[in-house]
Amino acid sequence: MVRVVGENVDSDIKTIREAQNLADQLGLDLVEIAPTANPPVCKIMDYKKFLYEQKKKQKEIKANAAKVVVKEIRMGPNTDDHDFNFKLKHAIKFLEEGAKLKVFVFFKGRSIIYKEKGEVILLRFAQELEDYGKVEQLPKLEGKRMIMFISSKKTAKKN
Q1: C-alpha gyration radius of the chain
Q2: CA–CA separation, 109 vs 107, rounded Å?
Q3: Hey, is 50 helix, strand or coil?
Q4: Which of 3, 25, 122, 153 has the fewest C-beta atoms under 10 angstroms from its C-beta?
Q5: 67 near 111, Cβ under 8 Å?
Q6: What is the pTM of this model?
Q7: DSSP string of 82-146, one letter each residue
């Protein structure tokens, strides 16, 4: 025995065979929706259409999800002011577009001895970008690179 529900169907208790015959007469499927209920609940519906609607909803949700773009800016430990300002302008443009920044100082060869210089450059970079983004991860040394992440204030407001 099952409780039968659905559009254009009287909600009542029937045997499984009767419920299946009713679904066949309507050209629809009999779908069990609450197996733990007493008696179990079955719905008469177009199951293919139901699956199609579910897939469509999932696609819509995925399309509306924010896609985060990560832009990289690379500097050296001895980056001079002109290059610094040039990269800063690009960083501002990226942050205004809503992208996330991965700023890193790359140490070549023996320049690794200037770790402090690299950190100073990154912190100065973060300070200059205060109005456009916030630091997500402070400078951290990973191998030959000191990396810092900055996220746009625009995307922070949206979420």
Answers
A1: 30
A2: 7
A3: helix
A4: 25
A5: no
A6: 0.54
A7: HHHHHHHHHHHHHHHTT-EEEEEEEPPGGGGGGHHHHHHHHHHHHHHTTTTEEEEEEEEEETTEE
| Percent of the chain whose predicted confidence (pLDDT) is above 90 | 6
State mean pLDDT over 90-107.
87
CATH label, 70-158, candidates 3.10.450.50, 3.30.420.40, 3.40.1190.10, 3.30.110.10: 3.30.110.10
Per residue in 53-95, pLDDT (tens digit) is: 999 999 888 877 767 788 888 888 888 889 888 988 988 888 8
In terms of Cα–Cα distance, which of 70, 77, 89, 156 is closest to 122?
Answer: 77
